[in-house]
Structures are given as structure tokens and as C-alpha cells.
Amino acid sequence: MKAVVYNEYAPDDNYAKILKVQDIDEPKPKPDEVIFTNKASALNYNDIWGMRGVPVAVPLPHVSGSDVSGEVIAVGEDVQNFKVGDRVVSHSNLACRVCKACTDGREFDCTRRQVWGFQTGPLWGAYSEQIHLPEVNVSKIPDSVSFEDAAAASMTLLTSWHMLVGRAKITPGQTVLVMGGGSGVGSFAIQIAKLYNCDVIATASPDKLDKCKELGADYAVDHRKDDWQKEVFKISKELAKTKGEAPGIDIAFDHIGQTHFNKQLTLLKYGATLVSCGATTGYDAQIDLRHIFFKGINVLGSTQGTKAELDQGLYWMGQGKLKSIVDSVYTFEQAAEAHTKMLEGKFFGKILMKPEGA
């Protein structure tokens, strides 16, 4: 079968040099595994980290990709909940399932956890014509959700749901700041916050502000301005008048990191929460600790989530309450072009790749 393979790293981000469509062996199901076709797969920033070989020296030769949807074509003898013909999507959090964290329902805290398609291999990721995963890492897709939308949702919907619902414990009526609302996780965060009837202030680059509002954001602010936080606080003051509350943000949803972290802390109310799943602009943020201890702020880390949380998000997609935003679709042969587009940030939502004929 065909797959997008690289045999060396590209620290200079020269993807065209390393990404090749090659033939690899078709998978045969282990007793607990499901095999399904690739109808659509989605790009994530960890694909770029993998190709750079930093911060993780991923196994080589490598097939990247953590999000993929398709149709089941074979199941192992111990598989109980899936059959040939089922429409499914990957859950990329590979946990041990037997440690204290896993058996406590915190598979995202498993010390042996791996992100499938990023840390796994060699030659085990989403960008291949057929996929094999343990049954516990596969979810069924609601009939009303397309393969493309399911692939675009797999990791980003899971991450956003876990951040806001699982970690930040979002409640109706809160004021929520979504940093980077034009990203995959940001676009779902806007929708989840509106599902909870919250007031949403999204930030994005100027060309994405209107699209954030179309997704449901009540306000959209250009976070490339040096004083973007002043505009956000001004909005929060107006919202506070209608609620009879103190101005400020109840939940800050962050994956931008270094360049914007401390300014988010200045915006938070007493007892408010900042939840972070990443650091796109860097990890070495300068923090004024007074904002944390004096205001009793909660700073929470968040990585992926549980399969149950993915299923919850997919349920709401099936009800038409959440939707994926697909920016563009490429073939495997266009993998270098697709990843370059992601690196440059000139997209809104998710970038997909498909095998020829999918």
C-alpha cells in the first residue's frame, strides 16, 4: 500500500526533500486491532516536530499523522465493538490502560503514553492507505458526520473539549478568551464555549477575525497588536456591566505560549483559570507571579484527553452543534506543499490529506 514516508529529518523544514510516497506492507490485524481505510487524514503541528527530529527524535523510517477516518475492512479475533463496514476515526492517545492514572480515568496522565503517528513507529501513522489501531483507540463516527469532518476533529476536538470541559470545568455564562481562534483547536474552542452559552472573545490574525465571528465568537481581536490585551479588557468591562460582575476573563484558552502568556494572566479575574495545551511561539514565557498568587489564578496544563471525551464531542457534532472547519485538502503526493502551508500559518481550520481515489 502507499504511504507518505520520510527516512531522514529536515531541520531546515525542506519537506520536499524528505517526504516520499512509497509502498509499505499492508497491516494484518493483531487480536485486539481494527484495520480501516484512509478516507481522510489531518495535519497537526507535531508532524513538523517529527520531521525536524526535535523535540523528539521520532523513529525512522517514519509515517506521520495522528488523525484519520475511514471504513473498517478487518478486525482482530478479540475485537468486540466494531465490524467490517463501520465508519470510524482514530483516537491517537496510546496509553497503557493498566497503570494507576489510566485505571483512574486519566489516560492522558499515563507516563507510558504516546501520541500515535508522532512518537510511534517505524512506519506507523495516519498517512497511509490502510490504518491499524487497537480497538480502544478507535471511535465510531455519527452517520451525519463526514469522513473529512471526523478526521479534522479527531485530535483538535478532543484537545479543546478536554481543555475546557475536562480541565477548566467551563460553566454557562462565563467570559472565555480563546487565543488563536483560527487554529484547529481554537475553532473548536469557540464552538464549545458557545455550546455552554458563554461570552467568547477570540483572538486571531487580521485576516481570520471575521471567520472567528462566523464560528460564534462574540468578539474578535487582532493579537498581533502590541496592546491587544487592552482591547480584550475593554470588552470584558462592557460584559461585566451586563452581568453585574468584576471585569476580566474567567477562562483563557491558550496554545500560543511565550509571546502572549503573561498578558493573558493580567486579564484573568480573581480565581480564574488559564488552561494551556501548547506553546507555538515558544515555551520560555516570562511570568509575573503576582498575577497568580495574589488573584488565586489556576494555571492548568492539558494534553489530549480520553476516548470518552472524544465520543462526547463527536456526539455533539452528530447533533449539528459542533462542526469542523476544513481549510484545504491535498493528496499524498502534495504532502510537502500541505505541510509548508501549515508551517506558514496561512490557513483557517484544518488541512487534510487523502490517498489518491479516497
From TrEMBL:
Its EC number is 1.1.1.1. Pfam families: ADH_N, ADH_zinc_N. Gene3D superfamilies: Medium-chain alcohol dehydrogenases, catalytic domain (3.90.180.10), NAD(P)-binding Rossmann-like Domain (3.40.50.720). InterPro entries: ADH-like_C (IPR013149), ADH-like_N (IPR013154), ER (IPR020843), GroES-like_sf (IPR011032), NAD(P)-bd_dom_sf (IPR036291), Zinc-ADH_QOR/CCCR (IPR051603). Keywords: NADP, Oxidoreductase. The keyword Oxidoreductase applies. Residues 17-353 form the Enoyl reductase (ER) domain. One of its GO terms (molecular function) is alcohol dehydrogenase (NAD+) activity. It comes from the Archaea. PANTHER family: QUINONE OXIDOREDUCTASE. This is Crotonyl-CoA reductase protein. It comes from Marine Group I thaumarchaeote SCGC AAA799-E16. The gene is ccr.
